[in-house]
Amino acid sequence: ALSNVPPLRNYFLEEENYKSIQRPPGDIMFLLVQRFGELMRKLWNPRNFKAHVSPHEMLQAVVLCSKKNFQITKQGDGVDFLSWFLNALHSALGGTKKKKKTIVTDVFQGSMRIFTKKLPHPDLVSTWIGPEWGFLTPMEVSEPRLPQPAEEKAQLLQNAEYQEMMVESTFMYLTLDLPTAPLYKDEKEQLIIPQVPLFSILAKFNGATEKEYKTYKENFLKRFQLTKLPPYLIFCIKRFTKNNFFVEKNPTIVNFPITNVDLREYLSEEVQAAHANTTYDLIANIVHDGKPSEGSYRIHVLHHGTGKWYELQDLQVTDILPQMITLSEAYIQIWKRREEDETNQQGA
């Protein structure tokens, strides 16, 4: 999928772009850059003798640089790998978290505001108190008790600890949360596979929708608002949830258009003017099929020259209709922002 992103591909096709980058002695992470560049040049070589390319050297570099967190013999999670790989490439190219940018951040990095508000502990809110509106003493245990009034809770929320805080943050991809899958079966004793529109799960980033996040000791309400959209936007649809016992997969189908996804309404008002174009078109769609631990991946990619879609799985490459792409269990998507000339051509 990353090889189908023209700016990233073009950068790694020219070895001179990164050949002179100086790394500390003993640093093995630059091997990842070298192997990824070699793979790009093999994939896009018009004079390849064979119709397929072996990524073996690239996979060995991944195993080495990830300290065996990702292995050739064991399938890992696609989102975990994507997150690690993009950050590892950025770091190996000399990038830093804030100041120094690389081709990775130029292509994929956007920014957002995160508003966080701490919630009182449920046990604290429902504290029982005695007749004198004070905390219970051992002598008052047997006396009539009343629940803490709403005024007490309101007063508690006025404390600085529970005020909403805002931080600016960058992102390489946006995580989209799916609604909980139904537990009940239909009349044919088959599990109902729900469907949800893309814009419903994108509402998480409209600056108004609040979502509760729980830790082992504290609860928070968070809301998100985008402040900068990157040229290429990655969506990661959260299909897997882990608990202490197993990994569960959510089979919800996301209904999305292939083109013309306008994200202007998710930007804060003061930055909308700085974004001339906020319309995106899909260029890659990664699908996970099967069970969480035993499933397989396939990818849909757009051929930019012809506008045709192809489905790739291992060595199999087949044509696919755009209408069929929306019926798949999409897991990772890459969207390309339209530029002025492309918008004018679409309008014509």
Automatic annotation (TrEMBL):
Q: Could you mention a single GO BP entry for this protein?
A: protein deubiquitination
One GO MF term attached to the UniProt entry: cysteine-type deubiquitinase activity
Extract the PROSITE patterns matched here.
USP_3
Q: Which domain of life is it from?
A: Eukaryota
* Pfam families listed in its UniProt record: UCH
Name the Gene3D superfamilies for this protein. Cysteine proteinases (3.90.70.10)
E.C. number(s) listed in UniProt:
3.4.19.12
What is the protein named? ubiquitinyl hydrolase 1
Native organism is Nyctibius bracteatus (Rufous potoo)
